[in-house]
Specification:
Layout lengths: L10 E5 L3 H12 L3 E5 L3 H9 L7 H4 L4 E6 L12 H8 L4 E2 L1 H8 L4 E6 L4 H14 L3 E6 L15 E6 L2 H5 L8 E4 L7 H4 L2 H9 L10 E5 L3 H13 L3 E6 L8 E4 L2 E4 L6 E5 L9 H16 L4 H9 L9 E6 L2 E5 L6 H8 L5 E6 L1 E2 L14 E7 L3 H8 L5 E5 L1 H15 L5 E4 L3 E2 L7 H13 L7
Parallel strand pairs: 1-2, 1-3, 3-4, 5-7, 5-8, 6-7, 8-9, 9-10, 10-11, 15-20, 16-18, 16-20, 18-19
Antiparallel strand pairs: 11-12, 12-13, 14-15, 17-21
Helix pairs in contact: 6-11, 6-12, 11-12, 15-16
């Protein structure tokens, strides 16, 4: 754990005591702060109390003595309705911050790379960290990628923190100046939490906040919003701007053309890697992830050969188009991290004969936008809260059934795939939904899929 000494002998309130919030409270206490901790869930309060934290109901007892409110990123502070404690903090003029801000305050001597975007940020974060580690750099990776930032190893001036940053986390971060900031893409997501698309875009743009001339902004230019952000930053000239693309040439940047990764950072447009040779990075979207990771690694001081060697040795990311098994000629692919339709689109585009397991806690736009890919789906097996609404969208266009649970969906999808006898058939868990209706998180959902596949009978390739 990284101690946070910046509030020594001061009072700090911490609201939300799940993984990142509990780590923040403990790191502040270790750094000498007086911590007032609270969570609305009784089990989280009990765990915090057992760890030695003092509990105070922040909504009832006020924040008069506090210097800041540290908020877990899942707790709303503006839209759709602020938590009462956040409202009290705002009225008192207290800064509302998160654990990433605490990390930035405590580890100013280290370097930071931050990755955000609606989709692809986990793969890109993991790939950048892998490339750097393979090159012998001192790296710690975390943030939104499953491991709370303050539980990472404390790094000195030669260390690099590689952080996946969600829009929720970025809203709670004010002083961090990223040495390399990556914005992959922006499509509608979490709109209720940000008060609409404009608020969501503004949250994502905070990844470039505080950057200066020695720092790099790496931006995907394959969507209109990000093209506008790139143009604005390039025109302002406050930091180095590097475009990346999976679809078209990006002069002065890194892009994919003809299935090859092209380095045009120095204007020479050199092909560096045939992405067809990268089975753990399937699909066009992973071309963008590879381009971003290559550009970020170069910006952090690696030469081209080291960056390419790191990409070549990348083993892939769990729960992101992860091939679990091939049984009786049917592949089983875990894409549990596809928590919205845009993420699921990336996986659906990679396969031709799909037995699709989808559903869960639905996002704002449903799956109507996936219609161009419906011909690839032989049958859909729908689970969770979204099952009925997804069934209406698929009616008359895709054969489907409501399987209710993941257990039943896997069994039914296996039977349908075997009966279909299609070469190259894929049972694809790519839910296009959050997991919270039936699972703790997408990792638990993916692990359940892995367990179910492991129990299936048949001949494994």
């Amino acid at each position: 754990m990284i101690p946070v000494p910046n509030f020594r002998n001061q009072t700090v309130a911490v609201l939300g005591l799940a993984r990142s919030g509990l780590a923040a409270a403990q790191a502040l206490k270790l750094g000498g702060a007086r911590v007032l901790a609270w969570d609305d869930a009784a089990d989280k309060r009990k765990a915090a109390e057992n760890s030695g934290l003092a509990l105070t109901d922040l909504s009832k007892h006020g924040l008069a003595d506090a210097k800041a409110l540290v908020l877990s990123p899942g707790i709303p502070h503006t839209y759709p309705k602020p938590h009462p404690a956040a409202e009290l903090a705002r009225r008192a003029g207290l800064p509302i911050i998160g654990d990433i801000e605490l990390l930035a305050l405590a580890c100013k001597e280290a370097r930071f790379a931050g990755i955000t975007g609606t989709n692809g940020k986990s793969t890109t974060t993991a790939l950048i960290a892998h490339i750097l580690k393979q090159a012998g750099r001192n790296v710690a990776v975390g943030g939104n990628l499953g491991f709370p930032a303050l539980l990472l190893e404390a790094l000195g001036e030669n260390g690099i923190y590689v952080l996946e940053l969600s829009s929720y986390q970025l809203e709670l971060t004010s002083s961090l100046a990223l040495d390399v900031a990556v914005l992959l893409n922006v499509t509608p997501d979490h709109l209720g939490r940000h008060g609409g698309m404009a608020g969501y875009v503004e949250a994502k743009k905070r990844v470039f906040r505080n950057q200066g001339s020695a720092q790099s902004a790496i931006i995907g230019v394959d969507d209109e919003i990000c093209r506008g952000i790139f143009a604005a930053l390039k025109s302002a000239g406050r930091q180095k701007t590097v475009p990346i693309s999976a679809n078209a040439p990006a002069p002065g940047g890194v892009y994919v053309q003809g299935g090859k990764l092209i380095d045009d950072l120095d204007g020479n447009a050199r092909p560096m890697l045939d992405l067809a040779q990268m089975p753990h990075l399937p699909g066009r979207h992973n071309g963008q992830n590879a381009a971003a990771s290559y550009a970020a690694s170069r910006a952090l001081g690696l030469d081209a050969a080291a960056a390419i060697a790191g990409i070549r040795s990348f083993p892939g990311l769990a729960h992101r188009q992860e091939l679990i098994a091939e049984i009786d000629g049917v592949r089983y692919v875990n894409d549990s991290k596809a928590t919205n339709a845009d993420a699921a689109e990336k996986a659906l585009a990679c396969y031709a004969d799909i037995y699709w397991i989808a559903g869960g806690q639905p996002k704002e736009d449903g799956i109507a936008g996936l219609a161009p890919l419906f011909p690839r789906i032989r049958k859909a097996f729908l689970i969770g809260e979204a099952a009925a609404s997804f069934a209406k969208t698929l009616a008359g266009r895709v054969p489907h059934e409501i399987s209710f649970t993941l257990d039943q969906a896997v069994a039914n999808a296996r039977q349908a795939a075997l009966e279909g006898r299609r070469q190259g058939a894929v049972v694809l868990l790519s839910p296009a939904c959050a997991s919270f209706d039936q699972f703790r998180d997408f990792e638990e959902r993916g692990e359940r899929f892995r367990t179910l596949v492991a129990k299936l009978p048949g001949r494994r390739a």
